[in-house]
TrEMBL record:
Keywords: Membrane, Transmembrane, Transmembrane helix. This is DUF423 domain-containing protein. GO terms for cellular component: plasma membrane. It holds the Pfam family DUF423. It is found in: Membrane. InterPro entries: DUF423. The keyword Plastid does not apply. It comes from Pseudomonas laurylsulfativorans. The chain crosses the membrane at residues 39-60, 67-91, 97-120. It is a multi-pass membrane protein. Belongs to the UPF0382 family.
Length: 123
């Protein structure tokens, strides 16, 4: 699990920085301020949860049970659904994709809840 979460953290961190730079330089003159802000929100949440995955990787061997695994998986799913839907929305303007975003937010909440529960159960 350590290797998997470290690889996910590295991947999402790398792509988050790349997408942020792409938006700042390549999309600045192509997207409206509203869509640029939506894209930026996706990047922000992706990078924050890439760091959360890094934390999960560091803690996964110290926390007994499966809650750390569930937290990491939920963070990864959240990035894909939340940030991914915001990227596609900003780039295509298809507003119906916004229905996916809350499911990603829910996955983030599940991840944080699992992490908190794992901490609560530590002796």
């Amino acid at each position: 699990m350590l290797r998997g979460f470290l690889m996910l953290a590295a991947f999402f961190g790398f792509t988050g920085v790349g997408l942020g730079a792409f938006a700042a330089h390549g999309l600045k003159n192509r997207l409206s301020a509203e869509y640029l802000a939506i894209f930026h929100t996706g990047v922000t949440y992706q990078l924050v949860h890439a760091l959360a995955l890094l934390g999960i990787a560091a803690l996964a061997t110290q926390i007994p049970g499966r809650l750390a695994t569930w937290a990491g998986a939920s963070f990864a799913i959240g990035i894909l659904l939340f940030s991914g839907s915001l990227y596609v929305l900003a780039l295509t303007g298809i507003s119906k994709l916004g229905i996916i975003t809350p499911f990603g937010g829910l996955a983030f909440l599940v991840g944080w809840f699992c992490l908190g529960l794992a901490a609560w159960r530590l002796s």
